[in-house]
Predict the 3D structure of the following.
Amino acid sequence: MTLPASLLLLLLLGLSRAVPLPEQDADDERQDERPDEPEDEPEDEPEDEPVEIGARILSTNNGTKEFLLEGDLKAPIMRSAMKCWHGDDRCLWPKGADGLVTIPYALSGQFVGGQRRTIESGLASFHGVSCIRFVPRGNQRDFLSIENQSGCFSTLGRQGGRQVLSLSRRGCVHRGIVQHETLHALGFKHEHNRSDRDSYVRITWGNIQRQMVYNFEKADTNNLGVPYDYSSIMHYGKTAFSMDGYKQTITPIPNPKVQIGQRQTLSDRDIEKLNKLYKCDTTGKAEKTC
Ligand SMILES: [Zn+2]
């Protein structure tokens, strides 16, 4: 393909995405974490109902007016997200002289009680396993603004200035979702978009909602020398964007029984990649949830 032709193709792809994206339930994994105390979260679901976390990201995003990529990834406005993966450190959060990557955040006052604890716990979960440190914002220019907007979504990598990470109180305030969206903000795409994914999963294009096909495009990702990870918190479930909600769109190969789409906690390889991307001295292991 000639250079002008590829530029035109990229432009057309960009234009084709510039529409509001309706979404629907997708993942098939269940999350055992119970919602927080009802008095703290008056708008949350009843405590005794298990929550399909992966599906919740997509269903909560249904109808959002934000321009979302891959279900919950907000399009970067000022730059190509791909630069994140080609050694351009501007999309990474900077490391201080202390060897720590300190990321300021501001938590909307719309989150109360248990919601604040859940979000802060999700952020703090990165501290024990990496050199990432989330701190309440002072007057820093670049920061994560964690807001109760309509959906669970984030930009990819550091955008500069105030950068919204949305966790709708209706369905997004769960530790695994906080971790998932935070990994987007740290620069990670979805696992099934990896450049080598065709060796690990089969995409059944005919089962995908037509307007959602772009969610399954492969990306020229930097895989950081870490093997494909079915257990990544960034992997979508088997029925993501399925036409009828039941037919599989992503099937692990050669063993279709392998579980994908968990939203419980960071996997060991999620942590390994995070430490490699940010060149952390520490290496951590996934905490065990109970
Ligand atoms: Zn996502």
